[in-house]
Amino acid sequence: MKAVRFDQYGGVEVLRVADVPDPVPGPGEVLVRVKAAGINPGEAKIRSGLLHARWPATFPSGQGSDLAGVVAALGPDVTGVAEGDEIIGYTDDRAGQAEYALVEQEHLTARPAAVPWEVAGALHVAGATAYAAVRAVAVRPGDVVVVAGAAGGVGSIAVQLARLAGAAVIGLASEANHEWLAGHGVVPVSYGDGVGDRIRQASGHVDAFIDTYGADYVQLALELGVEPPRIDTIANFTAVQEYGVKAEGNAAGASAATLAELAGLIAAGKLEVPIAATFPLAAGRDAYTELASGHILGKIVLLP
């Protein structure tokens, strides 16, 4: 089969699509013929070596966690799933961006027919992270919640989940994405100098803040009067020690139950996962180049 690989840390130029042996499912594992696999900024950071201290790569390394596809084979002791089933899942082995992937049985859920393949394949990392972040800041009806990076993969889901929880949401995003945010009931606010004043003009107070971008947004949240337990960042880990804010993300939200809940919302028309672009597996470099360009609305997906 073909799979994305890299043999050393670096930019997109280190990526290649290699012929590798077909994986064989072991006990509790399911072999999935991948139909869609999302890509994520964290994967680009791992490939570049920026996260070596937290998540070192072993070479040759694969890439990818998100995936959706069709069950091709079952390992021993697998029950409750059959060959031919359409599933949404994830792998923790950096192996999703391939024609076939092994998935632990407890990491998959059924794909509702109303959830398109590219959406299903892009759901896990961004969806579980957004789910955990909204839960971490304890969004309640009537709250005012600010989301930095509101049009990105995580942010675009987080703003909708916060709205579903009954909050008024202010989304920080580039002007090109304001129309999409407004169409989802979010008050769009532009980045840049004076962003704090613009947030105050949009609302008299802020109850919770979700930072998906990094930079100085935790400090901004504190300046806006948000209490540290109601600030969650997935991008500024030093702020956790310095200010006592939360850093709950994918690890806190990752489960088949989360995937099933999010997929159900999508199927019911209550949640949208915007797809910015799709690329064939062979064009993985192009996909990551597009991701690096920034200001992407939603997700980029590989279609093996």
Any chance you could write out the topology, listing elements then pairs?
Elements (H helix, E strand, L loop, with lengths): L1 E4 L10 E4 L9 E11 L1 H8 L17 E9 L11 E5 L9 E5 L3 E3 L6 H4 L3 H13 L7 E5 L4 H12 L3 E5 L5 H6 L3 E3 L5 H8 L5 E4 L5 H7 L7 E3 L4 H6 L6 H4 L2 H12 L7 E6 L3 H9 L6 E5 L1
Parallel strand pairs: 8-9, 8-11, 9-10, 11-12, 13-14
Antiparallel strand pairs: 1-2, 3-4, 3-6, 3-14, 4-5, 5-7
Which features characterize this protein?
11 helices; Quinone Oxidoreductase, Chain A, domain 1; 304 residues; 24% strand; single chain; 2 domains; alpha/beta; 5-stranded parallel β-sheet; Rossmann fold; 7-stranded mixed β-sheet
Q: Tell me what the CATH architecture of the largest domain is.
A: Alpha-Beta Complex
Order of helices and strands: EEEHEEEEHHEHEHEHEHEHHHEHE
Give the overall silhouette.
Answer: globular
Mean pLDDT: 96
CATH overall fold name of the largest domain: Quinone Oxidoreductase, Chain A, domain 1
Radius of gyration: 19 Å
**Got a strand count?**
14
CATH class descriptor name of the largest domain: Alpha Beta
CATH superfamily of the largest domain: Medium-chain alcohol dehydrogenases, catalytic domain
| Distance between the amino and carboxyl termini | 10 Å
Q: Structural class of the helix and strand makeup?
A: alpha/beta
Q: What level of helicity do the residues show?
A: 25-40%
Beta content comes to 15-25%
Oligomer: single chain
The tally of domains stands at 2
Largest sheet: 7 strands, mixed
Low-pLDDT windows of residues = none
Number of helical elements: 11
